[in-house]
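Milestone M4 deliverable, item 7.
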Amino acid sequence: MERNVNMTRHYGELAGTLLFHDTPRKTIVILSGSGPSDRNGNVGPVEFNTYKKLADALYGMGVNVFRYDKQGIGESDGDFNKVGLHDLIEDAIEVVNNVKRMPEVASVIVLGHSEGAVIAPAVQLETKADGLILLSGFNDSSKQMFLYQADALAREIARVKGLKGLFYRLTGVPKKVRQRQDDLLERSLRTNVASFKYRGQIVNAKWIREHASYDVRERLDHVRVPLLAMTGDRDVQVPPEHVQTIQTKGDVERFIIHDMNHLLVERTTPHTLLSLHKEYREAIEAPLHPELLQRLEQWVNKQ
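Output delivered:
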């Protein structure tokens, strides 16, 4: 069964969907990744449906699932360009607390994907949720991850072959990529406005500033509930090996899924940041990785 649920926040309504069974069940709340994706994991007209696929799969495992549109996205009110990291955390806390009060809910597990995996430990600590699932997350300061991604992109550009690669190297493009990231970070830290225009695009400076002072490890250090962490070895947006370094005060199960990318689907050939959007579009119809689903079901059934 499915029910749309709206939750009142100070900026308006936060809209979501509850998949529920006929008796009270364990309920998983999905916290989505960065960017303007809706409750289904779609960005504008591009329908990846990552979280709809995930919700449907989890529901088939016998649990309830709640997913929602972030502020200013989909059917939720607000201005996404002014939403900071702590706004996302506060919304997620409010969502989990509301879900805990629903009659269909016996217990709550917080599942975070990508950025959602970064904020999920803070949400668990505040709401006392019963478990944590972290998918495609990282285990470092957010500032280091900004620089990691910029360096990775610069290295890829430096390796481009042919005339295009020669042009990139002669014009210093690899170095400019890193310099641009440093400049954007510095400008965001210098200002106190929520957003500004940079090279013709609106930049959410508040989100960058708050991430720059955030370290997920400081929250994980205090987590005591069971935790499942999984990342794919084809993930180029976060270092897959980070999953093996996650530590808490509770039980942790960690897995690197072979041939899985950041969108949680199978990818048997190498990924590149330069062609990421094209490669992701090719995977729109792909099902979630079977090993991911198998390990999710095994872990959820144990809790």
